[in-house]
Amino acid sequence: MILLFDVGNTSIYTGVAENSEIIMTFRMNTELNKTPDEYYLTLKQFVETSKVTGIIIGSVVPVVTIALVKIAQKYFNLEPIIIQPGVKTGISVKADNSKEVGADLVADAAGLDSPNPTLIIDLGTANKFIYVKDNQIKGVIIAPGIALSIKALAGNTALLHEVEVKLPPKYLANNTIQCIQSGVIYGAITMIEGMVGRIREEVNESFDIILTGGLSKLLVDHIRLDIKRDSRLVLKGLLKIYYKNQ
């Protein structure tokens, strides 16, 4: 049994795999002050820990990376694979500084099955557009995510407050909660549609589009594009990378 950890700023998306199949997923809150022992107590509620034989970590939160490494060493007597320079991923990166490229971007790209050029749109704390061709990340766009945008409004205005991440019934709303929901959520949808058009102009070629990330289910049916959703893309990538390093 292999544990797959995709550590984001909001949550730790966790997969459990047997051989080449992901059999279960769950999420834990990303908590910077949580100890390795506390994370382990949460983990063992979901996983039969005695069967764990391997661990891989893709993380953009160094403090949590350290906690998960300690869990692997203390409770599983394992040295986890960490997505970092020197690890075989099967993905090359076109970047001014490859060390700046997040593990989540690499794992998303590694999770692709199609040989076609593909735009991955990963919706999380940040909304990421990852253009992949010939197993290379050609370029990336990063924008504030939906929940982050709501927090920014609430934190920088006197009369606006945080609201539930939920689609309102119409664009032009008549109360503050739905006004914020419409602006942030439909604004994100429109941004996605517009960005795809601009990326098409820039790359001047056809490409597939895959939507993934924690909020992809909320948006996928409202985006006016030919698009597919794969909620487990990053975990599939982590699993592929795990086996490349055995």
**Helical percentage:** 25-40%
Superfamily (CATH H level) name of the largest domain? ATPase, nucleotide binding domain
How many E strands? 11
Return the string of H and E elements: EEEHEHEEHEEEHHEHEH
Distance between the termini: 14 Å
In CATH, the architecture of the largest domain is 2-Layer Sandwich
Widest sheet: strand order? 6-9-8-7-10-11
* Mean pLDDT value: 93
CATH level-1 class of the largest domain? Alpha Beta
What number of structural domains do the residues give?
A: 2
- What's the main sheet like? 6 strands, mixed
Number of helices: 7
CATH fold-level topology of the largest domain: Nucleotidyltransferase, domain 5
Uncertain spans: none
Beta fraction: 25-35%
Sum up the overall morphology in one term: globular
Summarize the structure.
With about 250 residues, this protein is an alpha/beta fold. It contains 7 helices and 11 strands.
Describe the structure.
- There is one protein chain.
- The two termini are 14 Å apart.
- Helices cover 34% and strands 26% of the residues.
- The model has no long low-confidence stretch (mean pLDDT 93).
- It has a six-stranded mixed β-sheet. A five-stranded mixed β-sheet has the order 3-2-1-4-5, sandwiched between helices.
- The chain has helices at residues 36-43, 62-75, 103-110, 146-155, 176-203, 216-219, 233-244, and strands at 2-7, 11-18, 21-29, 54-59, 81-82, 92-93, 118-123, 126-133, 136-144, 208-212, 228-229.
- The relative contact order is 0.16.
- The protein has two domains: 2-82, Nucleotidyltransferase, domain 5 (2-Layer Sandwich), CATH 3.30.420; 116-232, Nucleotidyltransferase, domain 5 (2-Layer Sandwich).
- It has 246 residues and is an alpha/beta fold.
- Strand 2 and strand 3 (21-29) form a beta hairpin.
- It is globular and about 55 Å long.
- Helix 1 (36-43) packs across helix 2 (62-75) and helix 3 crosses helix 7.
